[in-house]
Amino acid sequence: MANLFYGSSNVYRNFDRALTSGLFTGKNFQLVRCTKKAVLDSSLVSLPAASLIVTSVLENFITDACTGVSDNEVQLFAHQQITAHVESLFALVSRLPTMTALICPPIYRSAPAWFGPYMSDFHAFLLAEVSRISSSRLGVCQPFIVVPSMLEADGVHLNVPGADQFLAHVNGQLESMLVEAPAPAPGPSESSARQSQILNVVNQSSSQLSSIGDLGEAVSNLTRSTSDFESFALRRFKADDLIFARLKEESDTDFNRSREDRVVISGFQPPPSALSSHTEKKIHFTAVINRLVAIACSSSDPVPQLVDIYLNIRKNQGQPLVEARFSSVSGAQLFRREGVKLAQAEHAEFSSLFFSNSVTQSTRVRIEVLKALALKLTTATEISFVQGFISRPLLQFREQEGVRSLATGVGRGYTFVDAVAKFGARLTDQDLSKAYLRAGSTFVGAMSQYFVVLRDDLVTQSVRTGSNLLPLGSSAQRGSRGSRGVRGGRRGYRSSSASRGHPYFRAESATERGTKRAGDPAQGPSKRNENENEVEQEIVNDSINVNENVNDSTLMSE
């Protein structure tokens, strides 16, 4: 079979002239026009045996991946493309033991403007990735030096003299590298003898060669069909998860709106030991809440009227969680807003208290995911924050004041499903550690159906408490008021993508992702499980924390 040369426009527009001038003589190259990563990936999957493959396409892949991203993310997205390219070729030479692959480094272009300053970084990272692979059948050519006079007016394509020089450079690199390339290591003598026997049988049975060819084609077709089926199944799973997550977000929003007349308060001191029954404790905290309302809303007309309270006391430490229901939504919002102000002012009655609206546990998990996304999206030119203390949390994505942003999607608010569908690829498993802690074991079996970017295989069960423990970053371990972070001495989780984008948005096989599909419960997790999980993991620490950014508080959303 002919050797393959995958080339972008700088190659395929000038390749015939290079052959006429005597370049690539005797190398038996077949040119494959390639400017998109999908073309190369689909070709490599079903590529039969060959001796040599040369690629000169990286500059196109990098440009496509980095178009529209902010300046401080160019390096990250470019490195991801280089790593993916090297790993694709390594998988090819591993599958075909007679194959050698050579990579032409990215060629300089003056458009887009960010490309040139990163050239040295692209070359250095490419060499580092090939060195990491450490395969004698995967190499990198020396970079071709381009001066501005070699480029056409568009700043992207080489002109005719520049392209001729580039192809001559590649030809010289091939001649020197292929001569110096070591021959494949010989296998064991028994394998060589066995291979000779097989070849003799095949040569003696020449009449059956056509059947062998048909068998090879059938295997290739089966491999392609299997790959297509896995891709289809993965796309279908992702589409289904987005539908399920949107349905749950809508139902939770309706449920949260029905509870907007309630305020969740934590941080109270345990009730007096003399109060033994639940009724006595409820009367005690009703009086406490009424006193707080009188202090916080003394100048309001009318004063919010407390209707009832729901008391939940943590069994092993006696820490109470109180949900106060008011006669109107406006009264609940007024008390919550004034309570936050007094807590921020370190008022004696309010300094240890935390206030939150009454929402489902799944809503709190969505808020943690959106917070992680907001950190990823905030740059020198964009700002992102979460409006979490409303019935339907929103991710706001805006331009920084006084600057112009080139990022896509700026200037609007995103619901949870819209946010993870558009920006979810930027999240890593480590970014989502707080969301896993917040979810606990309540949603096991349906994590992706509720939250899209969370996965069941990263949920580590604790036999004693049933809580989900994942390692947090330094800021999370440091904790905030009322939060203890993660208890030490417990096993964490194994992350295969701590430094890359979220695997849910990358190509993966159906076996990697698993096929367990739990039905979406009509009413979500049971109230008993939700309350236990909230108390055990201090869910209310997601409530208004006076040490957190004001953008994340009720004061901004109201």
Number of DSSP helical runs: 19
Count of individual beta strands: 12
Which overall shape is indicated by the principal axes computed on the Cα atoms?
elongated
What percentage of residues falls in helices of 4 or more residues?
40-55%
The average pLDDT value, as a whole number, equals 77
Straight-line N-to-C gap? 69 Å
Low-pLDDT segments: 180-187, 461-499, 506-558
| Rg measurement, Å | 31 Å
Structural class: alpha/beta
Largest sheet: 5 strands, parallel
Percent strand equals 5-15%
Question: Biggest sheet, strands in spatial order?
Answer: 2-1-3-4-5
Write the layout of secondary structure elements.
Layout (H helix, E strand, L loop, with lengths): L2 E5 L1 H4 L2 H6 L8 E5 L3 H9 L6 E5 L1 H9 L7 H22 L4 E4 L15 H15 L4 E3 L19 H21 L8 H16 L4 H49 L4 E5 L11 H19 L9 E8 L6 E7 L2 H16 L9 E4 L3 H17 L4 E6 L6 E6 L12 E3 L1 H8 L9 H7 L7 H5 L22 H5 L31 H4 L13 H10 L17 H4 L1
Parallel strand pairs: 1-2, 1-3, 3-4, 4-5
Antiparallel strand pairs: 6-8, 6-9, 7-8, 10-11, 11-12
Give an overview of the whole structure:
The chain has about 550 residues and is α/β, with parallel strands linked by helices. It is built from 19 helices and 12 strands. It has helices spanning about 10, 15-20, 35-45, 60-65, 75-95, 120-135, 160-180, 190-205, 210-255, 280-295, 330-345, 360-375, 415-425, 435-440, 445-450, 475-480, 510-515, 525-535, 555, and strands at about 5, 30-35, 50-55, 100-105, 140, 260-265, 305-315, 320-325, 355, 380-385, 395-400, 410-415. A 5-stranded parallel β-sheet has the order 2-1-3-4-5. It has a 4-stranded antiparallel β-sheet with strand order 7-8-6-9, with helices on one face. A 3-stranded antiparallel β-sheet has the order 10-11-12. Strand 7 (about 305-315) and strand 8 form a beta hairpin. Mean pLDDT is about 75; it is low at about 180-185, about 460-500 and about 505-558.
